[in-house]
């Protein structure tokens, strides 16, 4: 089983390694650069390779995922913002390739005053242009969204449309965030139906990761607030049924929960999930 968490790189590699080994996890997600600005990543080819090799050598980590910065918007009508977002994702995918990472997970962004239909072909063009300008061994992973403020990707049909327009389908994937999808109206109490729905519309072969989070906000609320496992509106029983679905056996689970001491994903949340897995 592949289970892990978002791990902060602040404080350096030694601190990260201590945390990963303490959590006893084999998957991590990290930011390639500071998530709230468009500054370049600190990694170059040499340091990226060295970093990833060091992490994989000193821990049980197999899969390394990246989370793109929060400012990304490929759906905006603001051309400057879209250009900056494309460049940021191109830079992240480059680092991804150097580190042999499993991919860069990102939010498409909000189409704001436009509908999805009005923005969808521009978004698809942006994805194709990013993939055209990045190494072949890097994967762009669209995260499901809670659907607040015209954010694209809250409906499986929207993601399916974008994948259908992607020229190199071997380099595109999906990360299902349980808190976001619950908030956008996908019922976690019937995981068989949910995954069947995902398979029928998008295709399970595109599912590259699960962001496993409970939700502070109500079903179909369109509000994105993560909660510790079992403490939110999805609840322990539903999470247990979901993570034990056979179709998810080889899919990495990544926790992005606030933590019981509010310092981010913690050992306690990881242990709860491990206990729930049969
Ligand atoms: Zn997430």
TrEMBL record:
Transmembrane segments: none
CDD domains: AP2Ec
GO molecular function: deoxyribonuclease IV (phage-T4-induced) activity; DNA binding; DNA-(apurinic or apyrimidinic site) endonuclease activity; phosphoric diester hydrolase activity; zinc ion binding
Keywords for the protein's UniProt record, in alphabetical order: DNA damage, DNA repair, Endonuclease, Hydrolase, Metal-binding, Nuclease, Zinc
Positions of the Xylose isomerase-like TIM barrel domain: 20-267
Its EC number(s): 3.1.21.2
Cofactor binding, note field: Binds 3 Zn(2+) ions.
UniProt: Zn(2+) 1 binding residues: 67, 107, 143
InterPro entries associated with the record: AP_endonuc_2, AP_endonuc_F2_Zn_BS, Xyl_isomerase-like_sf, Xyl_isomerase-like_TIM-brl
PROSITE patterns (alphabetical): AP_NUCLEASE_F2_1, AP_NUCLEASE_F2_3, AP_NUCLEASE_F2_4
Any one Gene Ontology BP term: base-excision repair
SMART domains: AP2Ec
Binding site residues for Zn(2+) 2: 143, 177, 211, 256
Keyword Hydrolase (UniProt): yes
Catalytic activity: Endonucleolytic cleavage to 5'-phosphooligonucleotide end-products
Cofactor(s) it depends on: Zn(2+)
Alphabetized HAMAP family for the sequence: Nfo (MF_00152)
Job description of the protein: Endonuclease IV plays a role in DNA repair. It cleaves phosphodiester bonds at apurinic or apyrimidinic (AP) sites, generating a 3'-hydroxyl group and a 5'-terminal sugar phosphate.
Similarity field: Belongs to the AP endonuclease 2 family.
Listed name of the protein: Probable endonuclease 4
Protein species of origin: Candidatus Berkelbacteria bacterium CG_4_10_14_0_2_um_filter_35_9_33_12
Gene assigned in the entry: nfo
């Amino acid at each position: 089983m592949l289970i892990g968490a978002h791990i902060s790189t602040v404080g350096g590699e030694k601190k990260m390694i201590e945390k990963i080994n303490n959590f006893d996890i084999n998957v991590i997600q990290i930011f390639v650069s500071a998530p709230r600005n468009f500054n370049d990543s600190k990694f170059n080819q040499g340091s990226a390779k060295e970093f990833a090799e060091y992490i994989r050598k000193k821990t049980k980590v197999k899969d390394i995922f990246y989370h793109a910065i929060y400012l990304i918007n490929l759906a905006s009508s603001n051309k400057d913002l879209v250009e900056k977002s494309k460049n940021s994702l191109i830079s992240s995918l480059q680092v991804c390739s150097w580190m042999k990472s499993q991919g860069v997970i990102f939010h498409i962004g909000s189409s704001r005053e436009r509908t999805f239909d009005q923005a969808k072909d521009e978004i698809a063009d942006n994805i194709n242009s990013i993939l055209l300008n990045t190494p072949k061994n890097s994967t762009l992973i669209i995260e499901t969204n809670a659907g607040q403020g015209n954010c694209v990707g809250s409906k499986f049909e929207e993601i399916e449309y974008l994948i259908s327009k992607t020229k190199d389908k071997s380099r595109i994937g999906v990360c299902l965030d349980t808190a976001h999808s619950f908030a956008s109206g996908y019922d976690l109490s019937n995981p068989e139906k949910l995954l069947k729905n995902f398979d029928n519309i998008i295709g399970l072969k595109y599912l590259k990761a699960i962001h496993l989070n409970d939700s502070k906000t109500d079903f179909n609320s369109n509000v994105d607030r993560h909660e510790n496992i079992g403490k939110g509106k999805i609840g322990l029983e539903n999470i247990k049924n979901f993570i034990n679905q056979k179709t998810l056996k080889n899919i990495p689970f990544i926790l992005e929960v606030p933590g019981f001491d509010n310092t981010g994903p913690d050992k306690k949340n990881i242990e709860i999930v491990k206990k729930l897995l049969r």
